[in-house]
Design a protein that fits this description.
By secondary structure, this protein is α/β, with parallel strands linked by helices. It is built from nine helices and 18 strands. Pfam families: FAD_binding_6, Fer2, NAD_binding_1.
Length: 351
């Protein structure tokens, strides 16, 4: 029995596991019971993820992000799917230890790998467990949207296909709107750029979303570019192992008089509200928003998860770590709030 009774931060909560579903020989899904008083806090968008606190004999705990494979429109409870990896401490611990009735400490849903509208036509790419956020978008688009969905799903072999039965059911339910293309490495080898560029040519007007190992996503990026899809229509989910501890409350950074006098000013729009703030040069955007008691989205504070991604509308920032953002994203104004420090005297930022 794995039991957590008290959360380690003001942002995290303890949830009970209400279901454990074996998806494939090396993957399972965990379904969480969310009490009614936490329903608003755990409302989520298709494609978002949960951050779980996992016990560790070596470090006390590790934090890992797992995508929600459920849809807020079709599933009664949030569900994350975990696949074992050879060196994956977190995934192996969850697969070996968690049972129905156990409790885990969890941060609220986060992430920006989510469509702005479900009425688009979608071109979805997934490899292995990368299907988890993709199937959330797929189910949501079919249920709530009006467009067509094309799924390209690559796996090692047939027994590795997560959600195979669910995808067959959806294909039967939406025969005129869903096309599923399965690619098996044992049969077809690894997908190549030229093959994919030809395959996606009829769908260049679609919004593309992809999740999977880095080499797979590099191939998809190149294929879409070669086929002529605009970069603004391409969205990729990137996960890195978290080095910091997102379950620790952030420290309030002290500001000297000189730093306050030299501070920039920033207008931040978050959830439809405008906040006008003083922004000392040595502090990050997340730092100053937390200091003002603003419920800014963030998780790792290390620039590794993308939870705090936002857009610079006016002004300029510098970032210490922005590796999870593509150069095209940065050119378009995307920044990480936990890494951004002001360069110009006035800025305008939108979450």
């Amino acid at each position: 029995m794995t039991t957590v009774e008290v959360p380690h931060s003001s942002r995290s909560v303890v949830l009970t596991v209400s279901g454990v579903v074996e998806e494939t020989p090396d993957s399972l899904s965990l379904v969480f019971d969310v009490p009614a008083d936490l329903a608003d806090k755990f409302a989520y968008k298709p494609g978002q993820f949960l951050t779980l606190r996992i016990p560790s004999d070596r470090t006390g705990s590790v934090a890992r992000c797992y995508s929600l494979a459920s849809s807020p429109f079709t599933d009664d409870a949030p569900k994350v799917t975990v696949k074992r990896t050879a060196e994956g401490y977190g995934s192996n611990w969850l697969c070996d230890n968690v049972a129905v009735g156990d409790t885990l400490e969890v941060l609220p849903p986060s992430g920006v790998f989510t469509p702005k509208s479900l009425d688009h036509d979608f071109l979805l790419f997934a490899a292995g467990s990368g299907i988890t956020p993709v199937i959330s978008i797929l189910k949501s688009a079919l249920t709530e949207g009006s467009g067509k969905v094309v799924l390209f799903y690559a796996n090692r072999d047939e027994k590795s296909v997560i959600f195979a039965e669910e995808l067959r059911t959806l294909a039967g339910r939406y025969p005129s709107r869903l096309v599923s293309i399965h690619w098996l490495e044992t049969v077809q080898g690894l997908p190549g750029v030229d093959q994919l560029a030809s395959a996606v040519a009829p769908y260049l007007g679609h919004e593309a979303f992809m999740c999977g190992p880095a080499p797979f996503m590099d191939t998809i990026h190149k294929a879409l570019a070669d086929a002529g899809m605009p970069r603004t229509q391409v969205h990729a989910e990137v996960f890195n192992s978290l080095a910091g501890d997102p379950f620790r409350d952030a420290d309030v950074v002290e500001v000297t008089e000189d730093e306050a006098a030299d501070a920039a000013t920033v207008e931040v729009e978050l959830d439809g509200e405008i906040h006008n703030l003083s922004w000392p040069r040595k502090q990050t955007l997340v730092d100053i928003m937390l200091a003002k008691g603003i419920d800014v989205p963030y998780s790792c504070q290390e620039g590794e998860c993308g939870s705090c991604a936002c857009t610079v509308l006016e002004g300029k920032v510098e970032m210490e770590n922005s590796e999870i953002l593509d150069p095209e994203d940065i050119e378009s104004g995307y920044i990480l709030g936990c890494q951004a420090r002001p360069v110009t005297d006035h800025l305008k930022i939108e979450f």
